[in-house]
Amino acid sequence: MGIFQRSLALAGLNCLENETLELSIALVGEDEIQKLNSQYRKKDSATDVLSFCEYESTKALCEKKQIIDGQFIFIGELILCPTYIERNADEDGESMEFAITYITAHGILHLLGFEHSKKMFAFQKQVAENLVTSKNKK
Q: Could you tell me the pTM of the whole model?
């Protein structure tokens, strides 16, 4: 099971069982993610990930799913900045593999309707720890 499947399993969205989900992922540099962050979030700084959700909430995602049953469901787009993620990983003493897994899970959970919470952060940490055999230390 990969990052997406583990994040989805932890999210516990029974409404999406046996459905084909799709998302897109783009990797960009710090200048580009800063522009996007400024444009869409009014924060003039680089960041690790931006999540552009197709649905406003988990409830909306589940309801839309019922409308297009049998087709893939596009849940949104993640924009990741590997250089930003790597710098933070170095500062935190984490491997790049752990950091990128952790941040990708974070973005996926946003696409599934999660907002920042202890539960969300615990889920993304669990995904990263389960997938990265070297854990988080270099």
A: 0.90
